[in-house]
Amino acid sequence: MAVSLTTYMNSKLKAMGKTASQAKKNAGKYKSIAAAKKAGSLYYTDKNGKVMAAVYAEDLKKPISSAPKKSIKPKARPKKKAGPPQGPTRYRGTLDEKIEVDKVNAKPMTKAQINAMAEAALAAKTRLKNKNLDASITYKKFQNMTADEKKAAGLPVSMGQTEKSFNRYMATRKKKK
Q1: Do 23 and 46 belong to one domain?
Q2: Which of 19, 108, 145, 168 has the fewest CB atoms lying closer than 10 Å?
Q3: What number of other Cβ atoms are within 10 A of residue 41's Cβ?
Q4: Average pLDDT for residues 140-161, to the nearest whole number?
């Protein structure tokens, strides 16, 4: 079976692990096909100084004996094993929270457990910082209080400068009770 010159040269270059330009660099050392073939080069320089392929016609008539063909498909990358969590994440909070969430998600939960978790989360959300907040405090009383009295009453030491902001704060505190 006859092989084209291009196919023959490409297979030999691939077997050598070189590009055509790398193989042509040695062409100036050899002046004949026989000398180039003996040295293992794929190219030689003819009497006019032109780089030529060191191939006989008989070489193209023989089937190409190359190394076993490798698959064209790239090798599959090894699958990564999940290692330990790597610090805080973008949407999940701290590392401890991430570990807790991952642990809970790893095992199936019953409806009773889910309800208990939901109630605990809601209770934590609605819990007041200071439960002894007196709803009868007005804006005028708030202005006349000292910092210690405000702390004892469960109010912030400094709050908005207007009565409107004070009333808004008090209304949200009353709703949470």
Answers
A1: yes
A2: 108
A3: 19
A4: 80
